[in-house]
Amino acid sequence: MKTKFLALAMSLGLLFSSCSNDDEPTTFTVAPLTGNQSIMIGETTTFTSTTTGGTFTSSNPAIATVGSTTGVIEGVSIGSSTITYTVQGVSTTRTVTVTEEPFGSGEITGTFTTNQTYIIGNYTLKGIVKINAGVTVTFEAGSTITCNKMTGDNALLVLNGGKLIINGTADEPVVFTEVSGIPGSWGGIIMYGDAPIKAVSGVTTSTSEDGNALSYGGTNATHNGGSLSYVRVEYAGAKLADGTKELNGFSFYSVGSGTTLDHLVSYRGADDGFEFYGGTVSLTNSISYGNFDDAFDWQDGWQGQLNTNWYALQTVKGNFGIEIEASANNNAFYPTISNVTLKRTIGTTPEVAGAVEIDAIQFKKEGNASFNNVVIDGYGTYTEAGTNYQGAAVKIQDASTNTDQVNGGKIILTNCNITNTAQTTPVGATSSIIVSFPAGNFTTSTTATGAVLTTGAWSTVGGVNLIQ
């Protein structure tokens, strides 16, 4: 009996011992975080752990933010932040350090023969700088490129076959400027291509009128001169040393449709804001502000088809809002532009006394175009030497343009909202030019909105919003 009792007791002891061992708690751990611990402002990295299912937090989101479930970290400002990863109440940490972006500087001069990228920085442009065929030059967002008229002629040229890539953003545009801040102090950006043109007498090649005397024109409609996005050119329009030719903020010689021109600003130049010499490229979301001659201008049979959101404000000095000609060629084609705003402030005078160019849109030398959703404001009466001149919304300058382009149905303006303008219906430059558009080719609307643009650093100079 004793033996059986002892055996039973030993069995129960073993059972209790076994249960006690099974119930001992195990310690839960989270695998360490891995990932790059050093990034620059604006860059990202990702912290990961082999233990899944947790959440991430940052001790200092002003330095670095982190996705709560993804572990994706973005550098915000200089400093360090501790990233904590928590699973089932257990945490592990890892520190990320955010450093300043590299900042470039130096002089840009001569001719580019190899590819070059300029990181964000402040640079000096000196002389007539050229980008050769087969070469790509890139500028990163936020850069400022400054020239000085005291050093001589300055301009940036993209030769046919070369490419200029400018990757600005709304918050960090790329700005080309001049130290004096005086309109007409340098040559701006000039691009050449081999897209089709029709110059005087119908020729398909011509020589540039910028003082560089370069050939332009060809058969490559899709020519690609690069991509210009969120770029501002200030105080351009200088005469070159020969003293005979002027330049614009942006000059495009036979540039093709493969080129991107978007969110560009031409600010306070001494000539035109934008000028097209033939070609097929289109311009979108762009501003011409305070330029002394025309806000927009074209000739040589320019035929861009995807133009939209053009905004012009003429103030202090200014000629036509848009000057349009086709080098006296009666072309079957014409450019198309939608969403256009042309404004002229009170007191604005023509660039040169005696040349009374005060109309919103002027067509001459067989110039044509199709516009839709247009706002025209402020092209009123101008008095010079005791004579009152009445600004017109649309002026047809010569009889052949009236006959071939207006009557021929190749000048179209629909949904035009015209205010504070002396002559609201299209007129001829002389009484002998009787302008009568075919039905539906000129219409007005009080609800037309014109250009619709989002403001930001790209459209602000000295704290002043250019879109007014």
Please give the domain count.
Answer: 2
The amount of helix comes to under 10%
Q: How many DSSP-defined strands?
A: 37
- Oligomerization status of the protein chains: single chain
- Report the major sheet: 24 strands, parallel
> Could you list the spans in which at least 5 consecutive residues all have pLDDT below 50?
1-21
Our measurement of the CA-to-CA distance between the termini, rounded to an integer number of angstroms, reads 109 Å
Shape: elongated
Radius of gyration: 32 Å
The whole-number mean of residue pLDDT values reads 93
Number of helices: 2
Structural class: mainly beta
Q: What fraction strand?
A: 35-45%
What descriptors fit this protein?
mainly beta, Immunoglobulin-like, 4-stranded mixed beta sheet, disordered N terminus
Task: Describe the protein.
The protein is mostly beta strands and 468 residues long. The protein folds into two domains: 62 residues, Immunoglobulin-like (Sandwich); 361 residues. Helices cover 6% and strands 40% of the residues. The protein contains two helices and 37 strands. The strands form six sheets. The chain has a 24-stranded parallel beta sheet that branches. A four-stranded mixed beta sheet has the order 1-7-6-3, with no helix packed on it. The protein is elongated, with a radius of gyration of 32 Å. The N and C termini lie far apart (109 Å). The N terminus is likely disordered.
